[in-house]
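Re: weekly structure request thread

Next one in the queue (354 aa):
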Amino acid sequence: MTVFRIAVLPGDGIGPEVVATGLQVLEAAAERFGFRVDFREYPIGAAAVAHHGDPLPPITRDGVRQAQAVLLGAVGDPSLDGAPRHLRPETGLLSLRALLGVYANLRPVSVHPELAAGSPLRPERLAGTDLLIVRELTGGLYYGEPRSIDRDAAVNTLRYTRSEIERVSRIAFRAARERRGKLLSVDKANVLETSQLWRQVVSELAREHPEVSVEHLYVDFAAMRLVSEPATIDVLLTENMFGDILSDEAAVLAGSLGLLPSASLGDGPGLFEPVHGSAPPLAGKDVANPIGTIASVALLLRYGLRRPDVAERIDAAIGQALRDGARTRDIARDGETVLGTRAMGERITELVRG
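Done, posted below.
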């Protein structure tokens, strides 16, 4: 029997709760499809600072390198907002991405018809929305040097190289080719030299992919397009900070951040996590939506373990649960029964088992 080793990083806030439901679903899928999963749990974020004095301690670094895929909950704790940068939970996340070399972040966004009324956008505007955001993840402002802050000034550096742009763009072109054949590249080339290089590289690669139609948009107009005409977007490719902002904006299409998964891919183990944060006020209350994590488990199976058949089973179970009326607090409307985190996880787990 095939055994897959998964590094599990529950993290902070609601992370441990939603990760527990994701593992429950993954175990049910493994049992149904005849493989085994070897979970190894490691600390990250504020939890790691509390026990190891490091948001990404050596034990975690070693563990993720030996895994075939990494499942992450969330990081962040307001008690460390004023801490030195090397002790902030988010530094652990950035270090993890750099360690794994996961340079391409994939965030699929689709609208479940049953939840269309929960979006602030009109249902007819959402009809047919099925897009994929491909965000460059290990370059740009978040990693650029030099960086500094003092009482009177702060400095960050925005830098991109041709090779960084090429490798993430190739993933986006491949995804577009396998989807509807449309690529929307987002930049700010009228202002930023890094964006001018970005547009140049994407345009050069477009000549290698005549089967993919390419459109370039400035990020401000793309942000408007994302909410005004979301169904016209197939694959949206952009740099690190723009992708961070646009992918969170896209949550309004689905109806809740709690629904959205992500996959971060590179040359080694992939990193899979929901797009929401640690949400400390919700921690321990059994109210967080676990669907983003469960959908991230499906991406882990699809991209990390090369088991698209199992991923499709989990995606179908999520869809069926929503069609059956299963709702957590963030997506429930007046009069609908609300399930807790564990109950929603159990409902989807049973559907995976069949």
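Residues 172 and 334 are 40 Å apart (CA to CA). The two ends are 21 Å apart (CA to CA).
Next request, please.
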